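Hi C.,

You asked whether I'd gotten around to modeling the 331-residue construct. I have! Everything is below, sequence then structure, no commentary in between.
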Amino acid sequence: MTAALVLLLGAASGATVDRIAAVVDDEVITLSELYDLGGPYVEQACPGQAVPCVSAAESEVLDSLIRRSLIRQELSGLGLQVTASDVDAAIDRTVREYELEDRAALRAEVERAGKRWDTYREELFEFLRTQNFQGRVLAPRVSITEDELRDVYQRQARREVKQEVVLQALGILIPEGLPDEEVGAMVAQSEALVASLNAGAVQWTDAVRDYDGADLASALGGKAFKKGELVESIDAAVFSAAVVPGTVIGPIPVGSVLALVRLDDRREAEGDVLPFDDVKEELRNQLFQGKLEEAEEEWYQRARRQASIMIKLDGAEEGVRRERAPDPSTP
């Protein structure tokens, strides 16, 4: 099923005249079911309602319904049906998880979002069936070896993602032995300089020329630093999400220096390659999901071959093209 179809499945607008779209063994799939599930997808995929486009879109939705039917039959044969009690239990878990007062409160939220309560319950049925099917039928067929994990690790060369910053800086030297009150005055003057720089009243190059007694401009200016590579106090300041690039911050005391730092850029960068043991479970989950999808497709194709499936969607002689009931509001 395409991603667009998954995103757009929902209730169709307008009523659909019911016809048989397919029969899967003894289970009938009607045209109304097809449009209940995929009406908006068909309408969005085929805005001009061209017959070839509509037929292709309807076939996509029908394929998903056939898959659902075969899954239901498989679970039924194994005694793994999802019951109304299972759905009620899932609803109760949702109520607890979101700290709602009761089921009525959840229902109010669902309906406020524009979804009918019976539709919500049916979607839960389908979700639980899928979980049951994947966990009880497909998962035992999936195996992952250590060699496969190491092969994926080598191919992907997993690296740690780190933030890095590009800075400009200047350092105002505090003379040795300066009395505390005069140090306080220097701090206040530095704060005023920061305000002037941020207001544009003083140019950064002029401030570097006049105040950078510690030569921080050449030590830090224009260079990129990853988190953890700078002095702790500067590191904490420039990596704070509250600091917008282009802002001058400080003064930041670093020993006998008052550092003024301009954050030019903050971005993501690749760090060191992560150890295999650190990403092993993530890789296992990634590989498992891929193999699970392959196992489902393999199961589905075999189940289709073994089932008795009669498609009536494209049979003109049965009169099964899509039709809409007259809108009673239309004169």
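If it helps when you're writing up: DSSP finds twelve helices and seven strands in the chain.

Thanks,
B.
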